[in-house]
Amino acid sequence: MIVRRLLRSCLTSQFSEASSISTHDNLGEDRPQFPGSRSQWTEKLEFIQPDIYDGIPVYRVMNTKGQIIDQTQDPQLPEETVVKMYKVMTQLNSMDRIMYESQRQGRISFYMTNFGEEGTHIGSAAALNPKDLIFGQYREAGTLLWRGFSLDQFMNQCYGNCEDLGKGRQMPVHYGSKDLNFVTISSPLGTQMPQDDSTAYRSVDEVRYWDERDHPIARLKYYLVSKGWWDDAKEKAWKEQNKKEVLQAFARAEKKLKPNWTELFKDVYHEMPQHLR
Amino acid sequence: MKSKIMSKLLMLKSNPCSPMFIRLFSKSPQCMATHFKFQPETAHLDGETAKMNLFQAVNNALDIALAKDPSAVVFGEDVSFGGVFRCTIGLQEKYGKDRVFNTPLCEQGIAGFGIGLATTGATAIAEIQFGDYILPAFDQICNEAAKFRYRSGNLWECGKLTIRSPISAVGHGALYHSQSPEAFFSHCPGLRIVIPRSPIKAKGLLLSSIRTADPVLFFEPKVLYRSAVEEVPVQDYMLPLSKADIVAEGDDVTLVGWGTQVHVLKEVAEMAQEKLGVKCDVIDLVSILPWDKDTVFNSVKKTGRLLIAHEAPLTSGFGAEVAAAVQEACFLSLEAPIQRVCGFDTPFPHVFEPFYIPDKWRCFDAVNKLVRF
């Protein structure tokens, strides 16, 4: 249909007496006729700057003070669930701070923090069925923590010790768990240096704004406090317990031995081929 | 290169067996015919057979796999109507759109999707339309599929993935429809690479590849799709992976190749017998990764002379790996330097294809060098 229209308009303009170029086809539509397109014509040859378009709106339920803006969007989660969410988010944050320090001290070779993404990890994991397979990239530790991966299991993988489920094969943060339906993480691009974290792509001011005004942990805490489900005393106790547990798991993992050297050659194939024996 | 051809022309009188002599003065019209002669074999299996060419044998294997494994799916560009080489003809009608379906034009996506699918436990049979197009999927195949089991400490794996793709020269394919990419992937532990030489081999090897617990790259020599016809057993049968075949026997020279090249080498062995009185072991490697070193080593220890031939370019082609391994394991048995007759170190050309490929004349010339050393 469209092709016939185009052909018709081409032919009429070819044979018309006036040699003027018409921008209208026979049906008077002044738009490019690309199937599925709602584009416009322009006679200006210039690059489009990003600021002339408004972005796609960003969905939110809470404001920066943890208040539900539209009550119909409140998921009405029970206290137990939301408190668990808060605890897992803060536990992740705590683990991140300690593990990042340990990487700086050279005790582990590599670490990726999850700062600022605690909400997305825990929120996504909480919405999924425990049987759903998760294919994470390497800032997804919160989903594992939600599902019940222990601090010991995290640390064992970071140290690549004899109890690492991954058998010491990969760098830290490349977690995986068959029981928790979390497919082992890879680094498909493989060039991330320990120093290359998200702060490389954000200005200092932007990071500070997020930390002070928009942090998911802070926003959730405001919500919890407003519901009477959390307070300063609980916060203090939880912070201490958290830190203690993480440090203890850390110390345990550091002491364990590395896996047997024969693990270097196993699991390349289902059955070890002759040339590796 | 030019000076090589000139010096060969000058040597014509003294060496009537030289490839240039035979090519220029032979009466047969080389340019239109294929550079090889497919010789059908018989399957060593009891039971009914049917006349099938390579694409029909592949189609038959896929049919059996889909029939017997309810989790099996076949996908790739244009597979629904039957595929550009007809390998998937009739499958969507028989098994439905849920199990046989087209993908977008995205090799990286085809591989990535296949890996994810295989990880969940479904049998994923992907097709990359031409081996020349497999490179966008390289990261997925080598960094993900190959390493899945190893990196997860055997918690996860994608062994149920098989990627099929047509490869090698077809007479007019030029740069992007003629490549043999096996060497690139041979460098990646965790993959299996299988290349059939015939319909009988293709069906059995494809069924084994689909069912093996490792991800497999199954490369089909496209020039054989129609031209290779055999009586193929109709039953479900599997052939061993990682085992090379000795397709001709002799004590004087070892010839190693795979895919289309096996048929060239078979003819070279006949020429060597006729013109030089020399008998050759002709070995089809069958599997490039892991490769059957023992069969090759045993042969070279017997003959002392080795020729490896492949269409892929010489430098770092798989022949280099075979040559390095053989010289290390069989050094004292060697009577002459190992010869490699391969594609030249250029992209695969269009009109110059007859000069580019390691045809029987170039291979025969190399055999001559081996016996006269």
Q: What does it look like?
A:
The complex is a heterodimer of chains A (277) and B (373). Chain A contains eight helices and two strands. In chain A, strands 1-2 form a two-stranded parallel ribbon. The relative contact order of chain A is 0.12. About 5% of the residues of chain A have low confidence. Chain B is an alpha/beta fold. In chain B, the strands form three sheets. Chain B has a seven-stranded mixed beta sheet with strand order 3-2-4-5-7-6-12, sandwiched between helices. In chain B, strands 9-11-10-13-14 form a five-stranded mixed beta sheet, sandwiched between helices. Chain B has a two-stranded antiparallel sheet with strand order 1-8. In chain B, helix 9 links the parallel strand 6 and strand 7. The two termini of chain B are 23 Å apart. At the A-B interface, loops of A face helix 6 and helix 7 of B. Chain A: This is 2-oxoisovalerate dehydrogenase subunit alpha.
- Structural class of the helix and strand makeup of chain A? mainly alpha
Number of domains of chain B: 2
Using DSSP, what is the number of strands of chain B? Answer: 14
Q: What Rg of chain B, in angstroms, do the CA atoms define?
A: 21 Å
